[in-house]
Amino acid sequence: MTYSSELTVRPISRDEHLAAIAARPSVSFLQTPAWAQVKRDWKAESVGWFDGDELVGCGLILYRQAPKLRRYLAYLPEGPAIDWESTAKAGDLKRWLDPLVAHVKAFGAFGLRMGPLVTTRVWSNATLKTALADTSVTRLREVPADETTEVGAAITRQLADAGWRAPADESGFGAGQPRYVFQMSLRDRTEDDVLRGFNQLWRRNIKKADKSGVVVSLGTTDDLPDFYRLYAETAQRDGFAPRPMSYFTGMWEAMTAEAPDRLRLYLAHHEGDLIAATTMARVGAHAWYSYGASSTEKREFRGSNAVQWRMIQDALEDGCDIYDLRGITDTLDESDPHAGLIRFKLGTGGHAVEYVGEWDLPISRVLYHAFDLYMKRRS
C-alpha cells in the first residue's frame, strides 16, 4: 500500500477506534478501547494515523506518570496496529513513528515504548521437541528457527537505525508483554485435524476428563468469585503474586461491554466441584488464552486439558485463524520450572513464535533513565 501524503497522528473517538479494529483481521485485545478501562491506573487515549482524511492505522496509548512529575512513559502494548508489512518493504518506518513521537512528546512523555505484533522467528513443534531432548541446548534463541521473517528483520533494523532501544534478553517473564508466545494455527482445520495434532498424552487426558464426567461450561459475571478463589489457590501453589479481584471484575465489565465475545469465562466442574477455570479473549480471527486456574484436588480428572479443548473448539467454531496460548520463556533447561510450561503447551501440536519485542525510545534521556531505575527498584 502507498500513501499520498505525510502521515499525521491525532486522537480518535472510541467508535472510530472500534471501526478501525473491525477493518483488520485482528488486533491485540491490549489495543482495544476496553483495555484503557481495564488499566485504570494509567491515563489512556485512542489515536489514529491519517493519510489526509483517511484513517490508516490505530493504537491505544497508555501513559504512566512519573512520581511527582507531570511527565509520562507512553506505552502501546502489543501495538500499534499499522501496516507493518508494507512499512517493512518500503523502509519508511520513521514516516509512521515520527508523528507518534511528536504526539506523545506534546502530551508530556519522556519515553515511548511499543511492542508490535510482528513475527521475527517461528519454531515448529518437531524442532521444539528435538531441542528439549538435547541437554546441551538451554535457550530457545540458540535453536535455529524453521522460519525467519523478512518483515521482522526489516522492522528490527529500522527501529535500531531510528535510535530505539532493543528489548533485553531475559531468562524469565519480564514486566511487559511476552516476546515469545505459543500458538496453534486453526485456519482451514477441523476439530479432528486439531485433535490429531495433539500428542498422545493430551488426547488421553481429554478423553479421561470426558469419561470422568468433567463438564465445561461458559460462566457469567456471577461466576467470577469462584474463578478468583481458584485463581488465588493457583497463585499460592505456584508461587506468583495474584492480581486483585477488582482487576478481573473490571476486565470483565469493560471487555464484555465492548463486545459480548471479547472475553469469555470457562469453568470445568467434576461432580459439582470447580476444578479448572480460564478466560479467553478474542478480537477478530485471533483468540487468546488469557488467565488460567486449577484446583490442587482432583487434578487426576484433567480439568485443565478439558477446558483448553473447549476453548479451542469454540475458537474453531468462531472462525479464528489463531489460538494463542500466550507467553512462554525462551528457557529449554529442564531444571527451570518454566520448561514445564513449554512442555504443556507443546502437547497441543502448536509452534513457538518470537515477536520483535518491546522497544523503547528515550525522549528525555535523564527522565527515562531515572524512571527506569525507579521501576526496577519497585519490582
Primary descriptors:
6-stranded mixed sheet, Aminopeptidase, 379 residues, 2 domains, globular, alpha+beta, 13 helices
| Helix-strand category | alpha+beta
Count of structural domains: 2
Separation, N- and C-terminal Cα atoms? 42 Å
Low-confidence stretches: none
Oligomer: single chain
> Can you say what the CATH homologous superfamily of the largest domain is?
Gcn5-related N-acetyltransferase (GNAT)
Strand order of the largest sheet: 7-6-14-8-13-12-11-10-9
Over all CA atoms, what is the radius of gyration?
21 Å
Could you say what the CATH topology of the largest domain is called?
Aminopeptidase
Q: Write down the CATH class of the largest domain.
A: Alpha Beta
Q: Kindly estimate the percentage of residues that lie in beta strands according to DSSP.
A: 25-35%
Helix and strand element order: EHHEEEHHEEHEHEHHEHHEEEHEHEEH
Summarize the structure.
With 379 residues, the protein is α+β, with helices and mostly antiparallel strands. It contains 13 helices and 15 strands. A hairpin with a 2-residue loop joins β10 (263-270) and β11 (273-283).
What does this protein look like?
The protein has 379 residues and is of the alpha+beta class. It has two domains: 7-115 and 358-378, Gcn5-related N-acetyltransferase (GNAT) (Aminopeptidase); 120-148 and 180-355, Aminopeptidase. It is 38% helix and 26% strand. It is globular and about 60 Å long.
